[in-house]
Structures are given as structure tokens and as C-alpha cells.
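Fold sample X.
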Amino acid sequence: MRRWRTLVLLPLLALTTLVAGQAPPARWSEARANTWYAAQPWLVGANYIPRDAINELEMWQAATFNPTEIDQELGWAQAIGMNTMRVFLHDLLWQQDAPGFQRRLDTFLTIAARHHIRPLFVLFDSCWEPFPKLGPQHPPIPGVHNSGWVQSPGLAVLADAAQYPRLEAYVKGVIGAFANDPRVLGWDLWNEPDNGPDAKLKDKNHYVEILLPQVFAWARSQHPSQPLTSGLFHDDWSPKDHLTPTERIQLDQSDVLTFHNYGWPESFEKHVKELQPYHRPILCTEYMARSHGSTFDTILPLALQYHVAAINWGLVNGKTQTNLPWDSWQRPYVTDQPPIWFHDVFYGDGRPYRQREIDLIRSLTSQANAKK
């Protein structure tokens, strides 16, 4: 029954648009996307969550939102030349308290602007815990990487078309509130949407393929002055027939192209070259896993060479414990620590994990943006 309700939703939405007599806003042209990108500095930053938040709910809920800590940490980022942050939101925050959430977003943007940082906001995410809950979040699981991150929407919502009007209100509400705000860099509508299937929803990607185009349409209906995107994260995105249905939606709908790469520099360069034939700006919105060969030393010079934005995972080590590697899911680092941090740039007190990395980031960003 749920699948039938979901499948009929798209025709109903199309009928509503026809009745209203309004054509959906168009994707940005290549020219508009490239003109926008030419006006930006070289974009360098991190995927950001404060050190005292285990996930996006704890970051943004009124009881745990911490502007003082955010101000301090974004100051550290500014000091090394970073000018953007990729920041995750959550649909439950809008459901819980839309006016309050909007005020906290505005507070965050005011702090970020003070540090000359323009965030790329992420609205949905297909990774990790599939049944998110509002309220106090559980403490970190000792020795485990990112042990409290939550999906948005949760699987029960994703599979229930009756919930889609609530998701539509969230997308339109958040983007509509900041659609012409120069403090916002852009909108990453869905993080790794086809990261699945999930054991609790075997046909998860089926629902994603239905909902993702609607999310783009809802976002475009607000006529944002900032670009829309959704990042690719599989292995090969050259213009060939083997692209997944979700990847085709991402490539066909994104104003600017974004991707993730945690591999060696040869892998990073390969992905950049696969995306160049699409003739749109390219932003890497996740990279830097030291023990996997993805480091600031190897990737950041390549990103500068190809004029690709570079947003690494993790700014400050904290409750997400993303300094621990992915294999901690199978073997928690409780009695010993990995020989090298996986993600993150700073300790919780602001000390750099590696001063050489700090010097490199500062040097390359200064060199690139001095020409702007």
C-alpha cells in the first residue's frame, strides 16, 4: 500500500503544477553556473560540527546549540584560510520548532560571516542511524567513528509518501528563508542519497529515486540565488550508460557538480577528469582520510591545480570521534589508539593535529586568493 501511495505522488505533483499554470524553475545553465563560480574565491573548508555535538540534531536543537563554541571554532578555521563550511541540517528540526530553528540558522550565519565563512548547507542525508529521534542524543560509543550520526529523513519517513508534504515544507521553509542571503554559499540537497540499501528498508534507493527529483523541484521553487547540488560518491561518473538512476538525477539536476573522494591522489584526479566533460564547476565536498592516502599534502595542491573546491571531513576533534578510522565499527579503539588520525584538523583546545598541514592550508589559500 505504501508503495502505491508513493508512486502516485509524482503525477499528483505534476498535475498540481499544471493546474497552477506555472512551469518549474529551470536548472542553472552552464554559463550561469560558471559565472557564479568565477566570482568565488578558491573555496576551501571542512565538514563542520562543533566538538560538543554528536550529530546534526545535537548541534542545532535549542538546548544544545552553542554559539560561543561555534564562534571559537570558526575563528580557528578563518585563521588558517578556510572560507566555507559544509554544515548538515535535519528535517526533524523544522518539524520540532521551525521559527526557532530559523533563528538559530540566522545566528550561525551571522557568526560565520564574521569569520568570512559562507556555508554550504546539507538538507538530507542517507548515512548512519536510520531512525533519528529528537531530544537528548546518546553519548559517543567508546572507540567508534561517528557513532551517533543520524539519517534525514529517517527510513520510516522515506518510505511513507504521506510524510512528504512535511519534507516539502522543510525544504521550502529553510531555502525560502535564505534564498537571497549572500551569507549562504549553496544548498547540498542530499548527502550520498544512494548510500544503501539498508537492512531495514531493502528498496531504500527506490524511494530515494522518487523523492530526490521532488526535493530539487521544491528547492528551485524558492528561486535561490545560490546553486543547488547533490554529491556523487561512487567510483565512475564519466558520461556512460553505467551511471545509477540516482547518479543520473544528481548529474542532471545539480547546478554545480560535487563529489566525495577518500582515496589516493590518483583517484582524486581521475574523478575530477571524469566530471570535467560536464562543463560545470566542480567541488569536492568530502576528502581527507589520512590512513587511506587522502591527505592535505597530496590532495590540496591537486585541487588548486584543477580549481576544484576542497572541503575535508572534520574540523575539530570531538564527540563524533572522526579522528578514528572506519574500521573502528568492527574493532573499536578502546584500549589503544590508531597510529594516525583519520579525519579532523584541530584538537578540542585549538591545537593543530599537524602544524605542517596548517601551514600548507594557509599557504595555498593565501596564494590562490591573493589573485582574486
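Fold sample Y, listed below.
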Amino acid sequence: MNARLIALFISLSLTSQLYSQSKIYRLTIDGVINPASEEFIEKGIQTAVDNDAICLIIELDTPGGLMKSMNMIVKNILASEVPVVVYVSPSGSHCASAGVFIMMAAHVAAMAPGTNIGAAHPVTMGGGSDSTQQAMMEKITNDAVSYIRSIADKNQRNADWAEDAVRKSVSITEVEALNKRVINLIAKNFDSLVVQIDSMTVETVIGKKTILTKNAKVEDIKRSWRFGLLDILTDPNIAYILMMLGIYGLFFEFYNPGSIFPGVIGGICLILAFYSFQTLPINYAGLALILFGIILLLLEIKVTSYGALSIGGVVSLFLGSVMLIDSPDKMMEISMGVIIPVVSVTLLFFLFIIGFGVKAQQRQVTTGVEGMIGETGIVIEALEAGRAGKVNVHGEIWKAVSAQTITLNSKIKVTGIDHLKLKVEKLEE
């Protein structure tokens, strides 16, 4: 009897020690699903596994994002040895598009009151004919449907609703999600979530695991400056501004070779913009309109169109900017508060700054030796064909040669210079 009491005491002590030493790791994803968030979640899962955590809780608020990044996040969650809890929080947050796939992959799915989930229809990049686009979209949609159904079935969630979220872009509240078996629970805040998931048993890649959160210590995984920077670069407005700055810098360098600084800055901005564009649904028709608008503004500098090219350039640039991001989500669009100032500055940049530079380069040289070409003067010492004489140009006496004989006091025109000796020809009256 005493042996049983001792064994029970030891068991309770070990359990108490396990609870007191257990850790819950938490990280927050608030924004677009992109390579930065993918890497951040991968790091969070690895940290939880390395420290033998009770679970990893991902607080999620996202409009969606890049499918490739979403696929990698889903793979990391499904391959995690530590239970992963995805919690749509705080109130007012939503889990859309790529976020739905991540929620379905979670070992435990939870939502806060006043949140919603859904609208997971994939969006492709623009380009190609309508028939080609339709065929491509159908293939991508069918692939996404089979993918999300397999994830939902694995975690015993409503696969039919998951398919509707992809095909029909349906969206539901947290209460509907709970009733339809899309999520496991509703938690009003993080503390409530920790209490509710205590003693839940989930299936991980290494088998069943019971989540024991009582008295567990919560440790936040903070984003490094690198993750923060990469996340900022994926903002559509930032990507658009970087692209325009890159174009400004390179054009300024082309028209003023040797400036170096504008070219370097322009190149860096364009590379960063290309990185951003790989995380966004870019419409190639919009990008083509932007480039066409810039070409029209460049032509305005050299072609007299009485403003027609400028108007066409501004219209093309504006429409291309509006169309550049091909997404039904307002959070993924470029703000009009950014587009209008950028288009205005671009117009001024090309018409005034680059325009003045081109005109300055094309202006006839009026100083130095080159400035003598085209000037007129008087012969003060007769010129015989092939023999040097003297001429007076601008009150200065120069040696001059001519291919023809030119008599004294005849008017001449300077056609060239050879070793400080003018080449002239007779100027007809």
C-alpha cells in the first residue's frame, strides 16, 4: 500500500514538474503571406521543436498571399512534431485566401469573436488570351480544391465547405465556422485559448500528442529586422514606388552617363521591386501600360506633338498603375493616394528634368574651339586652293585653308578646325 502511495506521489511530482517547465511559443502573422512570413513560421516551428514545446500558437490576420509560400507553410505545419495552433485574432481580423489553407492544416484551429474566414479562390497573374486565362484558372482552381480537401480530411474538418471557399469564394463568421466543423473552438482572447486547448489530443507527424497548457510559460518569437524589412517590401504600394524610383534612376543615368549614384540607386530599387512583384499577383497588361506611358513621355521630349504624347503617356501610366495588381482584395491594391502623386511626379520628371538635360546636350556649342564651327568672317589674306591664308572671325585673326581660291575681303564660313587652323568655304552672297 505504501509503495503505491509513493509511486502516486512520484507520478504527481513529475507531472507537476512537467507542467511547470512546459513552454508555449507564440508568433504573430499580420499581413500578406509571402516568403518573409513563410520563413518566420518555419523558424517558429523549428524553435518549438528544438525546445520541446507544448505547442506553437500562430496568431493570424491575413488577406492571403503567394500560393508558393502558403504551400511551404502548410508542409511545415503538417511535418511539425509539435502541435501547431492557428488562432485568427484579434476581433476584426480575417483569414482569407492562403490563410484558409493554413488554418485547415493546423492541428487546432481557433477564431476570436468578430472574425471571419473564407474567400480562398486563387488569383493568377495577368497575361494571355481570355481562353488561355480561363483554362489556366480552371486548372489552378481544381488543383487548389483537391489540395484543400486533402488537408481538411486529414484534420477531420469540413472538406465540402473548404471546396466552396475555393470555388465560390464563400466566407463565414467564427460562429458559422464552428457549427460547420471548419474550426475546433472559439476563444475570446489568448488566455481563453490556452485554457480551452489544455488536454486536447491531436495527431502529429510522430503520432498522437496531448497538449498540456496548464501553468505553461508563454514565450513570444519576435521578428528580426530582416523579417520586418522583407515584409515591408511586399506591400503593393512600396513595390510600386520602388519600381518607379528604379525607372527614374536608370533613365537619369542613361541621359547623364557617369552620374553613377542615380544608376546605382535605380538598380537597387528595381531589384527590390522585382522581389516584391514575385509575391504579388501582377497584371502584365498593367505593367506594359506603365512602360508604354513612360515611352510616350520620352518621345514628348524629342517630338513636337503639342501635348498629345504627354496626355497619352499620363493616361497610360495612370491606367497601368491601377491595373498593376490583379487582386479582388482591397488590401492588395495600390492606393490612389500613391498612384496620383507618383504619376504627377513622373510627368514633371520626364518633361522638365530629363527634358532640360536632353535640350542642353543638343544645344549648339558656343564656347571653345568647337564653338567656331558655323561662324562667318572676312578674308584678310587671300586664300589659294591648298595654301593657308588669314581670316578675321569675331575680331580674331586665324590661319585658314580652303579647297578653293577665295579672294581678299570675301565672306567665308567656318566648316571645321584642324590643329588651330580653320577650314573655311566661300559664303555665297
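Sample Y note: Confidence is low (pLDDT under 50) at residues 12-20, 125-129.
Also: The two ends are 136 Å apart (CA to CA).
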